[in-house]
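--- STAGE predict ---
source: upstream dedup step, 1 unique chain passed
mode: sequence only
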Amino acid sequence: MEVYGAAESVKSREDLIEFINQLRMDLKNNKNEWNNITLEDYLNAMESFVNDMDEHYLETNQILPKQPSWENIALTLLASSMY
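--- STAGE serialize ---
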């Protein structure tokens, strides 16, 4: 999955648009590597991932950002493919 590195370099709206395109192409070309290929499964995973973020930040002693960055959004989209 080439998109792993791409998610961390998303810093702007334009970067996010390009990342979403890469994510869509990755699903098209590497569907067998995704855990959540239906929209329902993908959205369910996204809900679970965002819900579990509080626990992750508590375990790592980090502060959950009040205002997500473009990178946070991209990482959430990516994590939802596998969560």
